[in-house]
Each structure stands twice: as C-alpha cells, then as structure tokens.
Amino acid sequence: MPAAVRFGANYTPGQGWFHHWLDFDLDAVRADLDAIAALGLDHIRVFPVWPYFQPNRTLIRPRAVEQLVQLADAAGERGLDVNVDGLQGHLSSFDFLPAWTQTWHRRSLFTDPEVLDGQAALLRTLAGALADRPNFIGMTLGNEINQFAAGPHPDPDRITPEQAGAWLGRMLAACEEGAPGKPHVHAEYDAAWYQDDQPFTPAHAARLGAMTTVHSWVFNGTAQAHGRDGVATEHHAAYLVELSKAWADDPHRPVWLQEVGAPAPLIPAGHAAAFTEATVVNALDCADLWGVTWWCSHDVDRSLADFPELEYSLGLLTSSGRVKPAGEVVARLAREWRGRVHAPAPRTTALVVDVGDEVLAPRRSVCAPGGSVFEAFARLVGEGVRPAVVLASRVDDKEHLALRGIAEVVVPEEVG
C-alpha cells in the first residue's frame, strides 16, 4: 500500500564530526537534533565508528553502546526515528578499521571466521541495545563497505560475488538476532551498479535486506559530463531508484534514497538549492520510494583537517546550526509531503538493460555514466518520457511488466 515518504538526514555532529564519540557530549547532540527536527525531518541515520565501539575483537565498549542509546532516546524525544549503521569502515574519504583487522593482524573483512564473528557480535549488540526503542528503524550493515572489496580502494580484500552474498547474509542475520522484525538493510556505493568487477552486485542490493538502498553522488562523472543542471545530473538519484527496480524480485520492493548530496564545486554553492529541489522532486516521481535521507545534517567544521574540499559544505546546516539554502528546500519539501500518500503514476515505458548474467552483472558498466543505458535513460527523460528500467531476461514476462505498469519496452540503441 502506498504510504507517505520519509524525509531525513545523515547525522554528522556539528562539533567534532564523527570523532564526537571520543568526547561524547549529550547536550551538544541535543542541540544538533533540535536543529534537525526544526527542519521538519522525521529520521536520522547514525554512524557509530567501528574502532571506537569495538577496539578489540572481543571488547564492545559498554559505555559507547550506552551513548548510542542516549543519542537514540534524545532523537525520539524530538520526534526523530533512528537508523544505525553498524560497521563504519569508511566515512567521507577516511577508512575506520579496527587494529585487529590491519597490518600485523591483517585478515579479510569478508571471509576470515574470527573477523566475521566479531562483526556479527557488534551488529547483534547494537541492534539488541535499541530493539525496544519505538523510534528505532533498524540497522544498516555499514557505510559503503563494498569499497573494501575491489579497486579503486588502494588495499582491498578481494572476494567473489558468492562470498559477498554470504557475508551479507551472515551480517543481516546478526541484525535480525539482535532486533527481530526490524527492516535491516545494507548499503553500497554506486560501484555495485556501475563497476563490472565489483563483487557486491545489483542482485545483492535489490534482493537482500528489507529494502534496497541507493547512494547518489553526481561527482561520479555525471556532473562532469552533463553539467550542474543537466538532465542526467538532476535525475541521477531517480535513475538509481529506477535502475534498482530492474533487479528486484518484488515489483514493489521499497527503495530508500539513503544518501544524496550537492557536492561542490560541481554543484556550486549558489546552485545547491536548485539542485537539491530538482533531485528530490525527481526522486519523488519514482514509485515505492521509502524515503530521502540527505547527506548530511551539518557541515564539517573547517577546524578539522585533510577532508576533501567538498566534504566541508554538504550539510543542510552549518556546523553551528544555521539553516543553509539547501536546508530550506528540504524543510519545505518535507512540510509539503508530510502525511501525503506517495503514489506516482506508473512508468509505462521501460528501458531494457542487458548486463550479461543478471546475477553477476559482468557488463554492468553499460549502466554507468557514459554507458548506453545511462545515456539512453537521460535522453528519454529529456524527451519528456518517464522511463522505468527492466532486465533483458524479463521483457517477455507479461506478469512482471503488468505488475509494474509497463506497456512498452525499448532498447538503448533505439533511443536518440
């Protein structure tokens, strides 16, 4: 049944960024949450940094878990639900891996039995600590952890797609053990959809977990090629939502736009509000959208060193809590859509995607910026079409097409 779309923010503390866990200040957190709630948002995504919470494989710090619960309770007092990312191996260009997985203790994040036991214990513990909180949405396994499994990461733990699927299954089961019945999910960056040799695949993203998550960043070649206000740029998030539906076994599987932001200088500060509005409005034209969670709540304070330049300006709020133009846009859209049933018209024309084997997707780069599927989708949108995407293996499945409202299919070569 159609429901209202959720609006939220990825919570980046105004003081100390994610290092705030080292000097946890509940009053500062409350001030941040007040500013987020004042935007009219209904949820946040929270990032307990893995080595701060589990510095030793058999030590999960009780005080850190208690502070996470305090944060969740403070959010609940302000009407904010909470999703928790469990394994923060990577955030804003920095890797955060515990010492017991590195250098002298180097072992695979995805296949070593002892590492798996440690990861599962942390996820189970965090989920269990919040299971009885009414504002706890559920767990995300970690932030874009697929980057550790292939290049361009400088030191990846290479695995096969089968091993990636086994890891996802084990970790999702640990979340379920800790908090039964909650909608636990996993999250990859867009290499899962675009990179031929990435072992985390579109099938994993669209078929494992309670819903599909997509992370939309136009610095991946989209804005460079199409410009700050190009059709492909302003519809990139919507494209990922629709692309994900091609692999979903459930024609109405929920899709969560879990990360999306306006990265400078490709999206200049003066254009951030227009980009934000276009991106969110276009995503809202996709059926089965669970929610939009902007990256991020607060800017990174410039007293902190060595971040890529774009990371300092992605917030809806400044580090001191002042609302920025993009924040005003998100706040207005959240107000306009509060309680409103989300039921876009069906997308009756579907673009066919052929990536070879649909499970392994060895030719998924056709979906990436510059690829035939990506560019055909943008051309169709530019012509006024609202395209869906369908796997080549499903074009003759009349039941599947009917359930999605698809009346005709086109291949990329027929477009433009």
TrEMBL record:
GO molecular function: hydrolase activity
SUPFAM superfamilies: (Trans)glycosidases
InterPro entries for this protein: GH
Keywords: Hydrolase
Domain of life from the UniProt record: Bacteria
Name the UniProt record assigns to this protein: Glycosyl hydrolase
Taxonomic placement: Bacteria, Bacillati, Actinomycetota, Actinomycetes, Kitasatosporales
